[in-house]
Amino acid sequence: MTTPVQPGSESAAPSAASRPWSPDSWRSRVEAQRIEYPDANAVEREVAKLRSLPPLVTSWEIEKLKQEIADAQEGRRFVLQGGDCAETLDDCTPGAITNKLKILMQMSLALVWGGRKPVVRIGRFAGQYAKPRSSAIETREINGARVSLPSYFGDLVNGAPFTPEARTPNPHLLVRAYQHAALTLNFIRALVEGGFADIHHPEYWDLSFMRHASLPADLRAQYEQMTRSLADGLRFMEVLGEARVEELTRVEFFTSHEGLSLLYESAQTRRVPRREGHYNLSTHLPWIGERTRQIDGAHVEYFRGIQNPVGIKIGPATSPADVRDLVRMLNPTGERGKIVLITRLGAGRAAERIPALVEGVRGAGSPVLWICDPMHGNTVSTASGLKTRSFDAIRSELETTYDALRGAGAHMGGIHVELTGEDVTECVGGATDITEDNLHTNYATLCDPRLNYHQALELAFALARRLSQNAGK
Ligand code: PEP
Ligand code: CO
Fold it and tell me: Less crowded by CB within 10 Å, the N or C end of the chain?
């Protein structure tokens, strides 16, 4: 008997997935966002160097994260992924790293309170050095003349200053970025190991911004009550000697970055003893960006062969068939914990797009974790040409996505945010009341606008309230 083929269900994915693969098989494919280096031999020398250096993360950490993502797929954990849009080599300082951990830590505790489940903390750090650009060339007017130079593709590729020297892609930056990722991760591991993230330390509860005049009194009261009850609850569980308290508060950070430079990613992709397959040992969770997820492109070719869990950005142009084919291609065996779909649809489009996308994923027949990136679909330019995002749009996309996924019979198992632990002024709105007029005060990002410390915490509290309405149901 033959099984009838459903109209529209045929796809190139399953047959392609059985093709031979190697860490370098992507090189024969069309590579979106490809960097043209002036000296190909120098590139291969740096890649060879990168290949010889030790890994940044281990296969057992990667497998542990995959298991935690599998738990989140089944509703038993919640994922918080966050950090800079673009890490820079200059920002590899103790203060910047500590502040990033601190805000992720504080947000995660609010989410533990709201969702009543352990939170998996994943930084956009220790490798988030490569940036896709909408145009390969940037043109500026300098002294009345139009000057065109390569765009800034992140510190892994070239420098931000608008000079020919800085903007020329420099392959040595592949190794420099790796070294800074290693320094960052070394410090993070030492802090975590040394008890930095002890939740009893009062600085984690520095909520002074809640007294800001523009925060409505009822909201402030709710927030204060939430932090008090979380602290009391944890203390109470500790007194009872509850095993779960450790599970809820144990601090662990995983790393993630966009796997944009396939030279960098593949040079750290290896076999390890006693396990099947190849691991990307530069990070725990690499993701495929919105501009590089072509089903027959180099990035998907590279990603289909690694054992790591894989994130895929899902923008508004993604069709249900696209997402189905991507899931089939990247997870042909239907492994649990393998695929994280990161929606970034825009506040106004999420509700309308999500049901069909969920349906598309059903067609792939394997589990995924839906998480919402409420940043990249909500970027706007001010009259003076600064890129910004509104806190309200960000919050609205999170809430809309949360509801739309529930309505479609799926669930939002995490969030992906661009944030910093510093007091920057890049996104407008929130209790601290940043407006277009004062964006210039401390606009520090080299790429997309990030939530500052207060805005990030406020967002976590808003989401925690939403999660708490459904926790335990
Ligand atoms: C990013 O995460 O910084 C990014 C460029 O996202 P996207 O690929 O979704 O546009
Ligand atoms: Co970004």
Answer: N
